[in-house]
Amino acid sequence: MSDREFGGTDDLSLPKATVQKIITEILASDSESSVTFARDARDLLIDCCVEFITLISSEANEIAEKEAKKTIATEHIDKALRELGFPEYVREVLASAGEMKESLKTREKKTSKMDQSGLTQEELLQQQQELFRTATSKFNQGP
Prior knowledge:
66% helix; mainly alpha
């Protein structure tokens, strides 16, 4: 299935700087290599990645629809990879998904400004009412 079926990839891409960083890290891990990566090769690699992502997500979407699911889940990606002939990627994809799930569990929860204020609900309500009174007074005084 090609991205042309979805109207082309004119607006679909990956961040060039991110892809370049990945390429640089991979090339650096092979310290004996003095190979560099040309810009047009990087752009071609980005196009291939977008096509691969489109292919996998389209197949996963079809699998999810067949199962009457409205959300594509990890198991749909697993099945899509296998059905499209990429079973060698499944283990690493599932490991990466597991790592992401764990990192989401342990990340710090964002605190709201209300929580950070250290004030009680009543104190915050009093402040709000005072601000409303002040604003109303200024509005009624006119220019």
